[in-house]
Amino acid sequence: MFKPFQNGTESYAIHDLTLENQQDCVSIYGNLQLTKDQAGLQAAKALQALLNDVVNTLESEQNLPEKIDRPDAQEIENPFL
């Protein structure tokens, strides 16, 4: 189970949308189409549950800083091009 901010190597995918866990950050990237059908409803509920866990985890922190300093992401050259 995805537990926000607890395991720096964990990730969770909903179709092509990925949530990646780090100790001080949860990254969300990719693509998710929420269609107007049962599959879209299931995907929306899965996303809602994950985001609710992130919010609950942040709200439960006693001494949450105003902002943390994170190094800028650096681009690396694609070795396959």
Q: What about the largest sheet?
A: 3 strands, antiparallel
The tally of helices reads 1
H-E order: EEEH
Low-confidence stretches: none
Structural class: alpha+beta
Biased composition (Basic and acidic residues): 64-73
Region (Disordered): 61-81
Task: Give keywords.
81 residues; 3-stranded antiparallel beta sheet; 1 helix
Which helices and strands occur, and which strands form pairs?
Layout: E1 11-14, E2 16-21, E3 26-31, H1 38-60
Antiparallel strand pairs: 1-2, 2-3
If you had to describe this structure to a student in words, what would you say it looks like?
The chain has a domain at 1-41. Helix content is 28%, strand content 20%. The protein is built from one helix and three strands, in the order βββα. The chain has one helix at residues 38-60; strands at residues 11-14, 16-21, 26-31. The chain has a three-stranded antiparallel beta sheet with strand order 1-2-3, with helices on one face. The chain is flat and about 40 Å long.
Please outline what is shown here:
The chain has 81 residues and is of the alpha+beta class. 28% of the residues lie in helices and 20% in strands. Residues 64-73 have a biased composition (Basic and acidic residues).
